[in-house]
Design goal:
By secondary structure, the protein is an alpha/beta fold. The protein has one domain: Ribonuclease H-like superfamily/Ribonuclease H (Nucleotidyltransferase, domain 5, 2-Layer Sandwich), CATH 3.30.420. The chain has 8 helices and 5 strands, in the order H-H-E-E-H-E-H-H-E-E-H-H-H. The protein has a 5-stranded mixed β-sheet. A hairpin with an 8-residue loop joins strand 1 and strand 2. The longest helix has 24 residues. It is globular. The chain starts with a helix and ends in an 11-residue tail after the last helix.
Amino acid sequence: MKKAEREEYLKNRLVEMQVYERALREKGTSFIGGVDEVGRGPLAGPVCAACVVLPEDFDVLGVDDSKKVTEKKRNELYGQIIERAICWGVGFVDNHRIDEINILNATKEAMLAAINEANEMLRASSGAKIEHLLIDAVKLPEAGIHGTAIIKGDAKSTSIAAASIVAKVTRDRIMIEMEQIYPGYSFASNKGYGTKAHYEGLREFGPTPIHRRTFL
């Protein structure tokens, strides 16, 4: 695909992924929070969620499901999203809490923390609050905000895709740091997922303090 063709594709993709946001804005909703998480499946590390509120004129090309974007591009997009977002927040739940309450409930806790942080930033800057949430797959009435759960939402909504990128880059950076603290498990490359190198590390050294015991 030539450069011009690629750019045209990305512009069309952006328009396609803003359908939920446009529908809400046509009804008078201004502050829409996209919510997503990463880290439900790994054997080690936290689950991380993000909430991102984008401006109506958001035009950064390439924002998509974080799993479809290269690591280099994700880091570039992360900076652009944080710079352009009206507000944003991240939330973490560690492995001990995951073992205690299960991964679904931990995911919801992380999402609520991210939403609360984004809302605080929005209130501090404009006195406003998030009016509607677009959430990847999960229903979250506990947030006390009108919301829409969208299956595979990170590939269908720019707001959710932006949140997926923020969450992914944030968690990846944590796991890269964990490689320095707990060498031998290849956390920098596998980010805590169950790769061959990770299992070899477990066999040789046993679990670390950041391993999810209920996942092993």
